[in-house]
Design a protein that fits this description.
heterodimer, A: 350 residues, alpha/beta, Rossmann fold, 7-stranded mixed sheet, 5-stranded parallel sheet, 35% helix, globular, B: 320 residues, 10 helices, 32% helix, metal-binding (chain B)
Chain lengths: 350, 320
Amino acid sequence: MKNIVVLTGSSHPKLAQRICDNLGIELSECKLGKFSNQETSVEIKNSVREKHVYIIQSGCGRVNDNVIELFILVQACLMGSAKRVTVVTPLFPYSRQSEKSQKKRLPQHQIGSEIMSSLTQQADGPSSLPQGTFAQSFMGMSIGEGGYRQWCARAGTLVANLLQAAGADHLIAMDLHDPQYQGFFEIPVDLIYAEPCIIQWIRTEIPNWRQAVVVSPDAGGAKRATSVCSKLNLDFALIHKEDLANTKESMGLVGEVAGRPVIVLDDMIDSGSTIYAIAVHGVFSGPALEIINKSPITQVACTNTVPQEEFRKLCPKLATIDISTMLAEIIRRTFNGESVSQLFVHDEQF
Amino acid sequence: MSSNSIRILAGNSHPALAKLIAKRLGTDLANVTVSKYSNQETAVTIGESVRDEDVFIIQSGCGEINDHLMELLIMINACKTASARRITAVLPCFPYARQDKKDKSRAPISAKLVANMLSVAGADHVITMDLHASQIQGFFDCPVDNLYGEPSVLRYIRENIPDWKNAIIVSPDAGGAKRATSIADHLDLDFALIHKERKKANEVSRMVLVGDVKDKVAILVDDMADTCGTLGLAAKTLMENGAAAVYAIVIHGVLSGKALKVINESVLTRVVVTNTIPHAEKKKLCPKLDTIDVSAVLAEAIRRTHNGESVSYLFQHAAI
């Protein structure tokens, strides 16, 4: 493969190395670091003039640092007269956009709910606070003065625009949270799925998988779960989370799981409130690993879009599905100008 | 309906300065919360309506620069989607200002990247102070106001340096000569320059003084003090050449790495920085540090921009 340069940011260098091993080329040398005043410093050692550059960066760890590093790398390649710059993001940063999920992630929401429950306990006493304004000002969806509803800014379009402004010509992303995200871009976007790798993992690692039931942890993931079911010829079930006003969530199961191994399928495990899962992106922030260790889970399997070594040391139940072959294939095909859709038709060789 | 009002939003980089500016303008800071989700992504919650308002977002390029830069971009974008009339980014210290040219192969021009990002996010106007190279204004398509700390520096010299009439203004390198001569002319003082002779790359071998500082108070003037290696050596050279005392006045006191140690061990009498970058913690560790408050300059610029008045008055006169 001539005229190709593969660069990596500092978010997940091991994955980039595996991708290059799969492609049979060397990872290009690039010195990444920070100046003494915390500004990011990028030095690309080899020439990129008239070459097709692939930059691999995942939106994990210190997200803002990695995002700015990505923009600076893209700009540096642009200034170095690269022919075309493709950005490969195994986990796209700031990709979660739905209003409901963002309210839950805010730390205030958790504080608010504790106070709410203590307030409702005090409600009968003479010293109870006026529940209207005080309680409302703590809930994530509060009504402030003058009837203004507080809202959380969504950075999705912004990050898409910034990436284009930095000079990217093409984006390859894996299992985006919302596939409609492609429409935010003017440049071509290739979405790839970890599904073939997951299916292969199920077939090899889960004993008596033929009797298993695939469960989706929420209504939004039903489509993803049914897709895996139909390829493996398994039954399907769904967990429905009811959000009552004060965060006590009740889970209702739709479908039959008695006496069978259960595979819960999700796209991202962040705060760890879903249990027993195969997920594409294992972010594991906050108390996620503790929750998993304490829960009745047999095993959690995640792909290596986010570096997993540290997580595996803390949680023996964690297994990793390697998607570097998938990413290497798509890089090879886009570079050679071949069709990529064959990768999604079906999964035998992966 | 009625004309719009000023709304000041502050990021997490320098809340103290933002409060000072808001106080000078007689308003409160807008109700905005900037924090992080558990996976380290930035979360911005807008708590009041900014529809059709004149929004000023104050964020300095200091500390955790990448985090603060993302906070700024997301806040600008949030105000844009909230239908603000005009969004001005106030950056007392412009981030990545020193990476403004391609000085070797494949070097990024990060200042241009930051300018592009601010435009794409939706900023209509940028106010900054003492850009490292004022040509950076050309990187933007939107109007940029590059304010000067010079009038505040002149006032500080007149009020706080004893025997200033007998002082001499010194530039610690050739690049800052223009800045130093401008100050020297305003104060009617003499001027000197320190020239670095580099034998090997990244090793300052000798510092040569051009000018006479014997028995005078030497005032070193520069735009940025980062690791303070240059300042420490310059002060030593000046004392060796017979200066009575050495002061250093810089606009942006980044003071990273070993800077405080260098200052404490050097022969400098005092190091004066403006509050474009927060340094309250550093002052506790380094008694030689002093502050020039520029919140008045920024607040005046904001007020004049909002009212449509001329800002050039501030280039000559220190705001009170």
